[in-house]
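worker-3 :: picked ADAM metallopeptidase domain 32
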Amino acid sequence: MCVTQYSAGIALYPKEITLEAFSIIITQMLGLSLGISYDDPKKCHCSGTICIMNPEAMQSSGVKTFSNCSLRDFEKFISNMGAKCLQNKPQMQRLPAAICGNGKVESGEICDCGTEEQCGPASCCNPKTCVLNQGSQCDSGLCCQDCKFLSAGSECRPIAHPDCDLPEFCNGSSGACDPDITIHNGRVCKSDFICYDGECHDRDARCESIFGKGSKNAPFACYEEIQSHGDRFGNCGRERGNYKMCTWNKLVCGRLVCTYPFRSPFRQDNVAVIYAYVRDVVCITLDYSLHGSVRDPMVVRNGSVCDVGRVCINGECVESRIPIGEFSNCSEKCNGNGVCTSKLNCHCSEGFQPPNCQSSGRETSVLFEKPGLIMERTFWKAEKNRWLLGFYIALPVLIITTVIAISWNRLKKRFTKEEESLSSESEGSSQTYTTRSISESSSYTDTVRSKSESSAQTYTSRSKSQESTQT
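worker-3 :: tokens ->
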């Protein structure tokens, strides 16, 4: 119980066992952590049918108690040094009650803008109750404007450097800007430098920003001349109130030294200046005479290149693979279509989707390490909107197509019926014509026959007449 390496346990709750059986498992685990071992059923006894520390206890139901063996084991445990942490009762401290109007958001408060005078009439927070005024969604934060959340996708933190940092956006449901996410440490920037904590640590650019255009990072000889003194101008930090002298391999990781190509001296209020002329180069550095708790602006920043394949980290020149080692595997999982972020997620190139930058898509990042990642949530929301848009476009088209198909079907059936009707009428008229023809033909035949017969009779009568005359 009191040994940190062993004072933990894991119990799985499978669906096959009952809650009562699972409670026995938990109790036995707690017993083991208190020095109580499993019972030997032949030697250990209790008032119940079966004891708690019996290996088969979870298979029986009913009330169970610890055995005489368990009580003996626990007595030995608390009498030894192993239970010392149980006797060390901590001094409980009560949290002070929240005070509305002190400018600090405390337990039970949603906001606290201070006194009524400090809050002012346009405050989003009620200074008397420390809750938001009616209609207000927020009272502070980069994503809070006029007491309302900025819309999702509004940029709330611009990038510090285009090669090393990523912008942050509001999620539309909070007044706070999301945590600062950067591109992984060690990425090459400006060809010769590397990214560290979202910035490209270019010493030449720093010198130019301090002393003016034309000033650059000083050569090693200048660092050797100034940093080796171990005074307020050249040192590698402080130790017990005294300046630390830089060893040879740390000279360029102490304080920044620049070249000074100008003829007029450098002037700035409340700043001490030191010059050194080394190998035809005028070197310069400053001392701001700051208190020990204030960071010296001339300190060489982490990630500054100090040698080939080496960078400054906490005043030491170390191999660059050391600070970027943890990001190497992350970069591989981005499949060459993105870069790794400081949260070990992929920021995908345009046209690829997170998390592995393999499939195509419009969204580019998984930036936030929270349940339901915000950028992922935004991505799926956009994806959902695209599906809805497609659905709303396709639905009317489908309805129109269906109506046209049904109408065409009806017209087709109608035309078919008309064709069949016309065909029937045509066949009927044809049959009538044939019947008439046959009738006319038979009539004509009968007429011919009667004429023939008549002429035959006439001829016969004539013949008979002639014969009688001759006689």
